[in-house]
Recover the amino acids of this structure.
């Protein structure tokens, strides 16, 4: 849809809006990179300079990298995000398929259950989940009234609560519902059960949706902060965002190092985004259009 | 043996649940402290030293202990962020049942941790014939450092041990003072004058160089109240005493200087940069800021450390800073291993070495005679010696339950006055009332 | 010996019943993993939260208190109650500041962007970038931008002759500040949100802009071009096109974004934690932060759980209200 020959001033106005917005959006990124390439003294000069004047201090990155166990943080995050993504995919695929293509008793009740958890905000469940992850105080029952899993400060504590997501189930259910019934009938005639149908037919044609779910899940895990903050303490188990938060205190007034750290924490996801944005955009649009 | 303590701990927890009365801890009996290390032991120390040189110095000390203790004890030092984050993490760990063996802690933290009865009573270890400190050694440690770790609410037990001690001092930039023709102030009246004289304002009245930058903190306030001759707590420990005339005088002084544009509250640690580059005449804080100030200087400058301004300069008083270390209940082997590390750390050789590397104070008097420390002070760190000389005037802050929360009340009070949201009179009255309420709840 | 011959119809029915039973079991097996995790980590904890909120529970579980935690937090305990209501007021003030600005801005940009066919993908990619950046990293950068001394924002407003501000550390209300700059004074109650809260809102707007633009773009794409053509033939100007065609037909997306944005704002945690941690003078302490602080900094999980349950109920009630009041105004094309 294109309006008929826009007036010249209207066109300029539109460009202005877009460019102004672009500047606003990009500026924090620019300032982050800008500061990360300055020396400590230049970063703390007033007024701030728009461009590093003492050459580009790439060694800030090396220094920031050496001041905290970043390789470990990244490894931890990759492990947790990978496990989460895989787990979430598996549980969501199975559940979505059941809702979309199987008949069973209690289907509506179970669907309502999933819907309820989707609407359930995290605030209420933060504390009880924490208590569940902790160890029962000596002399109290580890199962009643609240089961204690004694998983505080482990990878499991970061993985288990996120292995099922109602949102992913809904997304995939939409996708599986759209598979033509003829394909299902044909498979049944060939003697294929649900498992074979799912594996050989439904999944291959649903790859974009699966990728969307995977990316959204991965991104959520990578950026997770509040939960790992309370459930990890050893730097060996800590993921990136918690590490970055800790680094804010560790860097003190070395803002040039903090910005460098922020930059290399943000870079992988930005790269992933640029590569996979097609799927991300589709996924979001898909949830939006139905209102 | 272990079963018995488990039972005892369980009984105490139930008792605590039922009555809400403070759980007095049944510390290890003398037999527990007098055992030997029987095999390799691994312990973890949580601390809040987030940057070098302090972080590196601690890690070096830990490594030295691991290499030389000869008993198979391995200590791992884990940094948990700043003190507030460390406090939160430790509280969380108590709830999660996942405490480390020992942790860096302020007295106010320990008072709260002991509510859950997880802290080891160190008297048995200090007095142990086999593993403790003899009388001469105990006397060698500064008495105030010991006293601050005794908790009146818990039967005067020694629940933590001095670790990274420092004190509250005033920093003055001598270059700026000289340039403004101001002599070093010793009394509060002189100080106020000095701040005003070293402030530079432009033609329109806007301040281009402040005389005083002061980060707001409850400990600063406590130090000022003490330096004016006031007290912090009533003798019975049931109400605060800092809401009296000294507290009011302090707030009024701050009100005048902030409103007048002579002083301001800096963001984070940026006051270190300003001070080091002669954009400030005065600041006050912990002696352990010395290395950061030195590192922030673009060109060398001349500065001195001393006691904060006093109402009575002959009876100088300031607040003791720095944290201690608390040992948490675990197994007798781990508790002993933790104690042995703490003891080693406080020995003359270690504490003198620690002072030179970390810029904290030594915990022993005899360490001041250590030749390496002396030469370090005279050649590299004259401010260190100046700081050391103030130790005798340092007084510990209250260590009652609820003190952590009271610190927040004091901080709010300071912020309200310096941002003009409340008059000093309102703020002190409000603050005192809130603090007394907290004390009451924690009886 | 009699052999009952099963008529073919009945045989088919038996077979299909068996198939149905097998399918039932298969379905339950397929659902089992998801249901287990959802029950254990979402449903049960919700119930536990209510359970915990009935007890005095500091570090260890204490005595049963019934609804006393709730009454303390809502009115009985003066300190706690004033803290709660102040946090609630802060949260809703934040909602009122952020949502209209966010959505208005996103709508305008989406509308403009939609009409521009060239380079649209590039702009879209750029605008969405803040949304994929982790809030911790982004907030750390904004802390730096908002820095009272070394920050670039003060430098920028200096170009317009405005003095440096303290942004995230300024507890004064914005209305008071504007009034005092023209020499007027306002009564205390009209001070308005603190500059710190407005600064956090600035971050939020930056962060969510791309997400909202994307959804609006999707919605705009659904509006059939014929409507516009027809209206233009009737002589409608741009403004009428926007108000009579675009807005109504975009209303499903507007409603969706509004609902999601409100929920997001009411729950917001990361940015508040990193940018201000509730300060200065508690002017940015939202209910979400209050829950966290009660739980994690004071170790009082009985009260913390009660607050969490209250927050959940508020969000649910608010969302239901939105559905009741607004949804009937939504035009579904």
């Amino acid at each position: 849809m294109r309006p008929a020959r826009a007036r010249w001033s209207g066109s300029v106005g539109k460009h202005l809006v877009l460019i102004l917005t672009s500047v606003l959006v990009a500026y924090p990124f620019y300032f982050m990179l800008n500061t990360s390439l300055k020396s400590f003294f230049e970063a703390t000069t007033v007024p701030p300079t728009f461009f590093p004047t003492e050459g580009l201090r790439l060694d800030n990155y090396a220094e920031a990298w050496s001041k905290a166990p970043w390789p470990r943080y990244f490894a931890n995050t990759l492990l947790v995000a990978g496990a989460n993504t895989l787990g979430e995919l598996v549980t969501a695929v199975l559940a979505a398929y059941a809702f979309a293509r199987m008949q069973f008793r209690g289907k509506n009740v179970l669907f309502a259950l999933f819907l309820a958890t989707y609407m359930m905000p995290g605030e209420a469940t933060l504390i009880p989940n924490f208590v569940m992850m902790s160890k029962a105080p000596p002399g109290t029952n580890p199962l009643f009234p609240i089961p204690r899993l004694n998983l505080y400060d482990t990878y499991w504590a970061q993985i288990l609560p996120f292995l099922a997501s109602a949102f992913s189930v809904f997304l995939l259910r939409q996708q599986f519902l759209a598979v033509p019934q003829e394909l299902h009938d044909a498979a049944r005639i060939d003697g294929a059960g649900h498992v074979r149908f799912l594996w050989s037919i439904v999944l291959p044609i649903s790859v974009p949706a699966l990728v969307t779910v995977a990316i959204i899940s991965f991104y959520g895990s990578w950026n997770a902060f509040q939960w790992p903050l309370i459930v990890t303490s050893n730097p060996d188990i800590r993921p990136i965002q918690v590490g970055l938060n800790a680094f804010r205190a560790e860097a003190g007034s070395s803002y040039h190092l903090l910005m460098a750290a922020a930059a290399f924490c943000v870079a992988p996801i930005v790269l992933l985004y640029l590569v996979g944005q097609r799927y991300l955009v589709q996924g979001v649009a898909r949830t939006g259009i139905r209102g | 043996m272990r079963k018995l303590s488990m039972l005892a701990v369980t009984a105490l927890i139930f008792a605590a649940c039922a009555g809400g009365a403070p759980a007095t801890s049944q510390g290890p009996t003398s037999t527990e402290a007098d055992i030997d290390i029987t095999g390799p032991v691994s312990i973890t120390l949580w601390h809040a030293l987030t940057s070098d040189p302090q972080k590196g110095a601690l890690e070096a000390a830990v490594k030295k202990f691991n290499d030389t203790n000869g008993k198979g004890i391995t200590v791992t030092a884990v940094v948990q962020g700043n003190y507030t984050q460390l406090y939160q993490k430790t509280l969380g760990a108590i709830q999660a049942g996942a405490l480390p063996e020992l942790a860096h802690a302020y007295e106010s933290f320990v008072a709260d941790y002991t509510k859950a009865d997880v802290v080891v009573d160190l008297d048995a270890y200090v007095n142990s014939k086999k593993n403790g400190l003899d009388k001469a050694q105990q006397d060698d440690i500064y008495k105030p450092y010991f006293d601050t770790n005794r908790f009146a609410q818990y039967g005067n037990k020694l629940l933590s041990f001095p670790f990274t001690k420092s004190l509250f001092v005033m920093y003055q930039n001598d270059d700026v003072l000289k340039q403004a023709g101001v002599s070093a102030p010793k009394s509060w009246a002189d100080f106020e004058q000095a701040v005003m004289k070293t402030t530079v304002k432009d033609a329109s009245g806007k301040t281009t160089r402040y005389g005083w930058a002061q980060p707001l903190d409850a400990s600063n306030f406590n130090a000022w109240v003490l330096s004016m001759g006031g007290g912090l707590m009533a003798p019975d420990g049931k109400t605060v005493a800092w809401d009296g005339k000294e507290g009011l005088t302090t707030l009024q002084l701050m009100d005048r200087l902030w409103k007048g544009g002579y002083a301001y509250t800096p963001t984070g640690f940026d006051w270190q940069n300003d001070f080091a580059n002669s954009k400030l005449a005065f600041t006050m804080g912990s002696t352990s800021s010395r290395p950061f100030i030195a590192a922030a200087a673009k060109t060398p400058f001349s500065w001195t450390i001393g006691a904060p301004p006093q109402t009575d300069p002959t009876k100088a008083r300031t607040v003791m800073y720095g944290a201690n270390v608390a040992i948490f209940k675990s197994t007798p082997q781990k508790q002993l291993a933790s104690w042995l590390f703490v003891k080693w750390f406080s020995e003359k050789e270690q504490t003198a070495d620690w002072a030179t590397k970390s810029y904290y104070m030594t915990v022993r008097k005899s360490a001041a005679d250590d030749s390496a420390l002396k030469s370090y002070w005279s050649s590299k760190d004259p401010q260190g010696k100046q700081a050391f000389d103030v130790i005798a005037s340092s007084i510990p802050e209250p260590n009652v339950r609820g003190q952590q929360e009271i610190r927040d009340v004091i901080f709010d009070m300071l912020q309200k006055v310096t941002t003009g949201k409340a008059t000093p009179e309102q703020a002190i009255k409000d603050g005192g009332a809130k603090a007394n309420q907290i004390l009451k709840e924690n009886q | 010996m009699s052999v009952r011959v099963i008529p073919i119809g009945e045989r088919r029915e038996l077979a299909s019943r068996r198939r149905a039973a097998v399918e039932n079991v298969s379905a339950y097996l397929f659902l089992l993993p998801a249901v287990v995790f959802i029950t254990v980590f979402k449903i049960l904890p919700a119930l536990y939260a209510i359970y915990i909120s009935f007890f005095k529970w500091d570090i260890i579980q204490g005595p049963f208190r019934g609804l006393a935690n709730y009454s303390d937090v809502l009115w009985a305990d003066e300190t706690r109650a004033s803290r709660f209501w102040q946090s609630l007021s802060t949260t809703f003030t934040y909602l009122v500041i952020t949502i209209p600005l966010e959505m208005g801005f996103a709508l305008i940009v989406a509308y403009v962007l939609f009409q521009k066919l060239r380079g649209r993908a590039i702009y879209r990619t750029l605008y969405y970038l803040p949304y994929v950046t982790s809030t911790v990293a982004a907030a750390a950068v904004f802390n730096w931008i908002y820095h009272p001394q070394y920050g670039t924002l003060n430098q920028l407003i200096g170009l317009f002759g405005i003095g440096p501000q303290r942004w995230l550390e300024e507890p004064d209300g914005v209305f008071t500040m504007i009034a005092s700059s023209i020499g007027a004074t306002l009564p205390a109650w009209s001070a308005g949100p603190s500059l710190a809260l407005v600064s956090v809102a600035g971050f939020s707007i930056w962060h969510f802009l791309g997400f909202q633009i994307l959804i609006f773009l999707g919605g705009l794409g659904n509006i059939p071009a014929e409507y516009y053509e027809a209206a233009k033939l009737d002589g409608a100007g741009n403004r009428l096109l926007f108000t009579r065609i675009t807005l109504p037909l975009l209303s499903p997306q507007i409603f969706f974004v509004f609902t999601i944005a409100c929920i997001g704002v009411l729950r917001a945690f990361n940015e508040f934690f990193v940018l201000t941690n509730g300060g200065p003078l508690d002017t940015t302490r939202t209910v979400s932060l209050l829950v966290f602080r009660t739980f994690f900094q004071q170790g009082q999980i009985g009260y913390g759980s009660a607050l969490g349950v209250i927050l959940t109920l508020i969000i649910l009630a608010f969302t239901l209200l939105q559905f009741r009041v607004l949804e009937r105004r939504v035009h579904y094309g």
User: Anything to note?
Assistant: Chain C has two domains: 8-48, 68-152+195-332. The longest strand of chain C covers residues 61-64. Chain C has a mean pLDDT of 87. Chain C touches chain B through 22 residues (CB under 8 Å).
